[in-house]
Structure to design on (328 residues):
C-alpha cells in the first residue's frame, strides 16, 4: 500500500550561475527527463520513519539521524510545517523510499530535487491519512516547498542562492534574483538544448567556496565579471521572450568565457563545448557549479541528434535532448 508519492524534476541553469550567488539574476528551467521520487509506505507500528535511499544503499532511521542529514532534515521540516509541531514521539510509522535518475553533483539539481520529492511525498502521505480520518489536509504551496528545501540546500553548500530549490519547487522556467520571489519568464518560441555530462562529479560546495575565496582576494575584478554575466542574462531573457532563441548562441559562448575567467570550467567541459560547436550547436556553456558535471548546447530540432552524437564521441557519459517550451 502506498500512502503518498512525491516527485521532482531536475534543472539546468541557462545563464547566470555563480553570479547569482552575488545578487545578479539567472535563468533556469526544469528538466523533466530526469526525476527524483519519494514513495511513502506504512511500516510496522512503533518503528517510526525509515528513509531508504535506494541509489546510495543507505537506510536512515529518522529518530537517530544527525540534525544535519539532508534527507532527514527534508522529512523533519515537512512534518513540522504540515503538522505544526516538532516531530517527536508521535512520528508516523513510515518507510520512505527515495530514488533518483538525476546524477549527483553534476549541476542538474539532484540535492534540491530529492529534498523536494521528500517534502511532496510527506505532504501526500499526510493528506491521505487526514482524508481517511475525515479531516482537511494542509496544502503546501510551491513557495513553501521552495523555502523548506532551501534549508536542506544550505547543508549541501553553505551559501546557496536559492535558484535550485526555486526552479525545482515551482517546476517552471524562472528568472531568479536572490531574496526576491520567483518570477516565471516568458518563452516566445520553444528551443532545443542538448545537455551532456562530463561524468565528473563536482560538488557545488567546492566551486562556490573557491569562487568566494577568489572574490575576497579580488573583489573589484569578480564584481565586474558578475556584472557582465548579469548583462548577458538580461539579453538572454529578452531574446527568449522575443521568440528569437538563435540569439542565445553567442550569449551562451560569452557566458562560458566569463565562467572560465571566474575559474569554474575545466578541460573536460571545454572539450565538450568545442565538440558541440563543431557539430553545429549555435552556442554552448557549462551549466551549474562547473569543474565537471554538465554542459548545455543550443541546438536545432534538426541537428540535436548530431550534436548529441558528437558529444558522446568527445567523451560525454550521457546526453539529454530537451525542449524548453512555455508551460501550457
Ligand atoms: C548551482 O546550481 C548554481 C550556483 O550558482 C550556486 C547557487 O546558485 O547556489 C553555482
Amino acid at each position: 500500500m502506498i500512502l503518498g508519492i512525491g516527485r521532482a524534476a531536475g534543472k539546468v541553469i541557462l545563464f547566470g550561475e555563480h553570479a547569482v550567488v552575488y545578487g545578479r539574476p539567472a535563468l533556469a528551467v526544469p528538466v523533466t527527463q530526469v526525476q527524483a521520487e519519494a514513495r511513502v509506505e506504512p511500516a510496522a507500528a512503533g518503528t517510526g520513519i525509515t528513509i531508504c535511499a535506494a541509489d546510495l544503499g543507505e537506510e536512515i532511521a529518522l529518530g537517530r539521524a544527525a540534525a544535519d542529514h539532508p534527507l532527514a532534515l527534508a522529512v523533519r521540516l515537512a512534518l513540522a510545517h504540515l503538522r505544526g509541531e516538532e516531530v517527536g514521539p508521535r512520528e508516523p510509522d513510515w518507510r520512505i523510499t527515495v530514488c533518483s535518475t538525476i546524477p549527483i553533483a553534476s549541476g542538474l539539481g539532484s540535492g534540491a530535487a530529492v529534498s523536494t520529492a521528500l517534502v511532496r511525498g510527506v505532504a501526500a502521505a499526510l493528506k491521505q491519512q487526514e482524508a481517511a480520518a475525515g479531516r482537511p489536509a494542509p496544502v503546501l504551496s510551491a513557495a513553501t516547498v521552495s523555502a523548506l528545501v532551501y534549508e536542506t540546500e544550505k547543508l549541501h553548500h553553505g551559501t546557496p542562492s536559492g535558484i535550485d530549490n526555486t526552479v525545482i519547487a515551482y517546476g517552471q522556467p524562472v528568472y531568479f534574483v536572490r531574496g526576491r520571489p520567483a518570477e516565471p519568464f516568458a518563452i516566445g518560441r520553444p528551443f532545443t538544448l542538448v545537455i551532456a555530462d562530463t561524468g565528473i562529479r563536482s560538488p557545488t560546495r567546492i566551486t562556490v567556496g573557491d569562487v568566494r575565496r577568489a572574490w575576497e582576494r579580488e573583489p573589484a575584478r569578480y564584481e565586474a565579471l558578475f556584472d557582465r554575466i548579469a548583462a548577458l542574462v538580461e539579453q538572454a531573457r529578452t531574446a527568449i521572450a522575443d521568440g528569437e532563441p538563435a540569439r542565445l548562441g553567442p550569449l551562451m559562448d560569452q557566458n562560458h568565457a566569463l565562467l572560465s575567467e571566474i575559474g569554474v570550467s575545466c578541460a573536460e567541459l571545454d572539450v565538450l563545448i568545442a565538440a558541440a560547436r563543431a557539430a553545429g550547436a549555435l552556442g554552448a556553456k557549462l551549466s551549474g557549479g562547473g569543474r565537471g558535471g554538465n554542459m548545455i548546447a543550443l541546438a536545432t530540432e534538426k541537428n540535436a541528434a548530431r550534436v548529441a552524437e558528437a558529444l558522446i564521441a568527445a567523451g560525454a557519459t550521457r546526453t539529454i535532448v530537451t525542449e524548453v517550451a512555455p508551460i501550457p
In short: The longest strand covers residues 26-42. The mean pLDDT is 95. Residues 110-132 form the longest helix (23 residues). The two ends are 33 Å apart (CA to CA).
